[in-house]
Amino acid sequence: MIFQEEFEQMRSLEQDLTFLSAKTEFDESNIPFKEKNLGIQNQDGIYTNLGLLLSDQCKHTIKVAVFDGEKQSEFQDRNEFAGSLFKQMHEVYSYIDFRNQKHSNFSGLKRINKRDYPEVAIREALLNLIVHRLSEASDKACYEKKNIMRSRTRKFFFFALFCPLNFS
Question: From start to end of 5-125, where are the E strands?
Answer without folding.
Answer: 62-67, 75-81, 102-107, 110-115
